[in-house]
Fold this sequence. Notes:
47% of the residues are buried. The strands form 3 sheets. Strands 3-2-1-4-5-6-10 form a 7-stranded parallel β-sheet, sandwiched between helices. The protein has helices spanning 13-22, 34-43, 55-59, 80-98, 136-146, 169-179, 197-209, 227-238, 247-254, 258-261, 270-276, 285-291, and strands at residues 2-6, 26-31, 46-49, 67-70, 104-110, 151-157, 159-161, 182-185, 191-196, 216-219, 222-226, 242-245. It contains 12 helices and 12 strands. Helix content is 39%, strand content 20%. It is α/β, with parallel strands linked by helices. The longest helix has 19 residues, at 80-98.
Amino acid sequence: MRVFLTGATGFVGSRILPQLLAAGHQVIGNARSEAGARRLELAGAAVHRGDLDDPAGLATGAEAADAVIHTAFDHDFSRYAESCEKDRRVIAAIGDVLAGSDRPFLITSAVGMGSPGTGQFAREDVLDRDHPMPRIASELAGLAVGERGVSVGVVRLSQIHDPVKQGLVSPLIELARQKGVSAYVGDGGNRWCAAAVEDAARLYVLALERHEPGARWHAVAEEAISVRSIAEAIGAGLDVPVSSLTEDDAGEHFGWMAGFAAFDMPGSAALTRERLGWVPKGPTLLENLARMDYSAIPD
């Protein structure tokens, strides 16, 4: 297949690209800059120049494609709602190009959108349309384009990690570096799920090749890691103390991260494993945190 891949130079997309090529697919990679375009060309992909701020222009990359994998996202979590609204517009624009065809369109969301209720593990067969997290906009956009005849599937991401980046854990690391303490809320028993980035990339390729319209897939290798254990790993890596905060104190310490820091986000990938044969092989989140070079300040 000729696959249009948005976010092709990003954290997840740059891992999907070589796996698509190795599987015999052609790739049109989206790039925002000349440097990104050069990286894509060197990797063996065709280049489409586009930007999330120009949904219609970005979407033209799908015109000559047999399928689309959309991973591009503005990861400024301090403006999360705005980023999710931007994603909604991009999904709608790509949907305009694909409408009326059977070309697969894989969009990206978050595992938490499948939560059936407080304390329960998120599942692929659940969609909470009233979820308080703004990322629900992506899934609602997917449903909307699906109603227009687009063959949409969803890959929901957990905390995707390697020894350099770890989803929402990376901002926690920088916060601990700045504050001199690695903190968690209450007893730190709230849980996050996670998967190694190479495993997540392989899931996208499987989901594309075995595409099921309307299917939702979970990139979850570890279902429930306590936030306290994450804070302790960060504390050990930075050599700073680890401390519990009350909910009243969490807002001042965590800032925009406060809602995430206290949120319980466990998730299951049982249906994904069963139906796609996806078997995660990568290291655990805590293993990658132990391997991280904490002396390196990210760009």
